[in-house]
Amino acid sequence: MATFQHHRITPWLLLSPQLAIVAMFFFWPAAQAMLQAFYVEDPFGLGRTFVAFENFARVLASAEYYRALGITVAFSAGVALGAMALALLLAVLADRVIKGATAYRTLLVWPYAVAPAVAGVLWGFMLDPELGLISAWLGALGIDWNHQLNGGQAMALVVMASIWKQMSYNFVFFLAGLQAIPRSLLEAAAIDGAGPWRRFWTITFPLLSPTSFFLLVMNSVYAFFETFGTIDATTAGGPGGATRTLVYKVFEDGFIGYDLGSSAAQSVLLMGLVGLLTLLQFRYLERKVQY
Amino acid sequence: MATLRLDALSKTYPNGFTALHGVDLEIADGELIVVVGPSGCGKSTLLRMLAGLESISDGELAIDGRRVNDLEPAERDIAMVFQNYALYPHMSVADNMGYALKNRGVPKAERRRKVEETARLIGLEDLLDRRPKQLSGGQRQRVAMGRAIVREPKVFLFDEPLSNLDAKLRVQMRIEIRRLQKRLGVTSVYVTHDQVEAMTLADRLVVMNGGRIEQVGTPMHLYERPATRFVAGFIGSPAMNFLDARRSGDVLTLPCGTQLASPWPGEAGETRDTPVCLGIRPEHLAIVPEGQNGGGTLAVRVELVEPLGADTLVHARLDGQDDLVVARIDGIQPVAEGDSLILRPDTDRLHIFDPDSGQRLDDLEPACHTPTSPA
């Protein structure tokens, strides 16, 4: 027991650099935001007034907020499901590649190393209404592409760019998941008379469900928070707020509109929302993926 | 219920490695064939080719006289029990067993009836709702068997199905597999590297080495008249002792000077004094009581004694030689390390092989490839 007592402080010392970083860049700002949410502050930060829940009430009473919520839900669902479906398809194909497998896999993982803003710029270029290569092709097909004017197209653009960015991450996990499925299971299924399609849906897909569940949580969080850079670099929330997601609205209201109190209240609400969503996923989905 | 015909079945991988060099075999309806051999002898490849999991490079495979080379595994109407059981972890025992029936479009009620019937047959009726994770190794093995049985296939394929079980369970399951196979009368091919399993299960035993069949026959035939030195060394435990000897006429001379009656006098007009490889099974060496040495014996010094209860294994070195021999002596013997002993080989049960080709020299009948009727 004496030895144990003696070492009580050492673990904390060893952990302190990491704890300091987390405290400085997460807990402190988070606490600041929470505090801010209860004040109204002037744009120059010279003075502030305690207003209790007024910021929250104002946010929850505004139609703009609910519109952004709707856009976020559509955007997140599109990004999470799209990125997972495409990644699964690519992983299944890459799993079958025998020659040059490493090269293919490396290439498929690359987009993950691209910064979100760069991904946005890239897609923005390709689909630029005047200069874009893809928009020119679409024009040839009779589709008039202009995401700077058409809200639906703007949404499609940010969803595509975000999917492209996140796909690599999902791909790595799906590929690992596929490779963890014993070959003999699929062989047994083949002998049991299941064709490739049936084998995939009755054996492979259910066995991937823990991976899929994990990715669903990660992709939701990604779509809610980390797509800010992509949106800012391509549509900046436009046109007419068609791609203004909740996290983008936090930025707009806080740093463009200088309504810091409302922005802080929104970020607290957003944090709560994602927490709730993750909780629900764990609660209702995780039970189904255990075997 | 089916016959199988393997005609010059070969397997060459894209990298040029040939795993099987033309395997010929006829398997009778209801027969249990055990394929045995060391690692890498091609036995698993052979089984996977029968299952359709590996393509056939050359030769022909026929089930019930119908060529199946190009059929998918599902179309061959075979069932396979895998070494790791390959149970679907996300399905209950009942679903695992019913999976093949479901794929074939068998209605739910009939599926249920068949699964329950099979479960009763192998004692799984209380476990039908469990997941594979909740079962012991032996129970999983049973489910794997049940999954094969419920389909009523033409052929059962077993890929070392008992190698993941502990020794006691292995003996139990071995007996059970034998009983079930006889009861159901389904033609079976069973791959193993365990020669006790091979000897006890097989109607006929196929010994493979280096992608070729060394010998086919009943276990006792292979034990008593191994066609090659390889089979002689592989079948029987502990392995047969091999000694260099010279034969002239019907006399075998060992390097230590001992002379034994040869079981085979050689062909007429053969040059005298040819080198041969002499094989003596450990159980065909007996200790000669002191003072009764009448020639035809081996003088040895004991190096290790392994008492097994029912018998004792004596590892000994021939006097003045490097050769080690093992003798299996009945009962518990008062033999200790360092003792000098006289061993007498049973000259009626000697085996002699060509030292170069390894072929048996006193066996004029060709290796038997035709099926014998199963017991």
Automatic annotation (TrEMBL), chain A:
Residues 69-281 form the ABC transmembrane type-1 domain. The chain crosses the membrane at residues 12-31, 68-94, 106-126, 207-225, 264-285. Keywords: Cell inner membrane, Cell membrane, Membrane, Transmembrane, Transmembrane helix, Transport. CDD domains: TM_PBP2 (cd06261). Pfam families: BPD_transp_1. The keyword ATP-binding does not apply. GO terms for biological process: transmembrane transport. Its main location: membrane. GO terms for cellular component: plasma membrane. InterPro entries: MetI-like, MetI-like_sf, UgpAE/MalFG_permease. It is found in: Cell inner membrane; Cell membrane. It comes from the Bacteria. It is a multi-pass membrane protein. Belongs to the binding-protein-dependent transport system permease family. UgpAE subfamily. NCBIfam families: PRK10561.1. The complex is composed of two ATP-binding proteins (UgpC), two transmembrane proteins (UgpA and UgpE) and a solute-binding protein (UgpB). This is sn-glycerol-3-phosphate transport system permease protein UgpA. It comes from Halomonas organivorans.
UniProtKB/TrEMBL annotation, chain B:
It comes from the Bacteria. Residues 4-235 form the ABC transporter domain. The keyword Cell membrane applies. CDD domains: ABC_MalK_N. One of its GO terms (biological process) is glycerophosphodiester transmembrane transport. Coiled coil: none annotated. GO terms for molecular function: ABC-type transporter activity; ATP binding; ATP hydrolysis activity. The keyword NAD does not apply. Residues 354-363 have a biased composition (Basic and acidic residues). Keywords: ATP-binding, Cell inner membrane, Cell membrane, Membrane, Nucleotide-binding, Sugar transport, Translocase, Transport. Residues 354-375 are annotated as: Disordered. GO terms for cellular component: ATP-binding cassette (ABC) transporter complex, substrate-binding subunit-containing. This is sn-glycerol 3-phosphate transport system ATP-binding protein. It comes from Halomonas organivorans.
